[in-house]
Known about the structure:
The protein is an alpha/beta fold. It has a single domain, classed as 3-Layer(aba) Sandwich (Rossmann fold), CATH 3.40.50.150. Helix content is about 35%, strand content about 20%. It contains eight helices and ten strands. The chain has helices at about 5-15, 25-45, 60-70, 85-95, 140-155, 170-180, 180-185, 210-220, and strands spanning about 50-55, 75-80, 105, 125-130, 160-165, 190-195, 200, 205-210, 225-230, 235-245. The protein has a seven-stranded mixed β-sheet with strand order 3-2-1-4-5-10-9, with helices on both faces. Strands 6-7-8 form a three-stranded antiparallel β-sheet, covered by helices on one side. α1 packs parallel to α4. The longest helix is centred in the first third of the chain and has 21 residues, at about 25-45.
Amino acid sequence: MDKYLWNDLASDYAKSVEDNDDQTIQNYLKKEIEIISELCSKKIQDKKKFYIIDMGSGTGRVLFELNTFFKNAEISYLGIELSEPMIILSEKKKLKFSPDSNIHFIKMDLMELDSKLFEKSSPGSVVMCLYNTIGVLPDSKRPFFVEQMKKIAGPEGLVIISTFNGDDFKNIAPIMYNAMLPMIKKINSDSFDEKNRVFKNENGFRSQWFPKKQIMELLKTELEPIPIEINFDGKVKTFGYVFTNE
């Protein structure tokens, strides 16, 4: 997927994600942030400076929610995003909702991530890559990207990765992408590649989904991920997972 495609998708990103009226998306986001908040709570200590870094922060949704949740001036939030329009939208939201917050955004290509640029951050940072963002990165770059995340987190930190449920791509993908049409724009007859767990369309949007085992191997962890379970059509279904390295 062309990394600059997100510049064109930025204006409709919120319509498909945080401002989406679709109940499935809203329930997914609510459950995901609940899990993320709990994981961060276990790492953050009062009166100790701490960094929460979101890789592929979009319009800042997660960082703004965590800032509201923790209300801790000792926490610094950093959003890493390549798309300039996404960053502009993030900065506008900050001015409107939390102008005094310690939330900052930096334009950076995740595929060229350099842990040395984050040496001033806390040795116990939480470094996140959420909402299947890792699925839009090139296959060959993912191992390097995850290793850089681990270095940035430091020996006392935590790496968090959330993905959609690739083990049930056939059933979950159509639900998710039909709900996100304002952003992806188009679903073609061959958009759902079940064999390779890939969603793609003629506009150039492409996202890889993963079985649990693949992300666990990428993180080099044996910890079972936390399921993102929501009610759909009267049944509880696993729509995604949250993985950690400890």
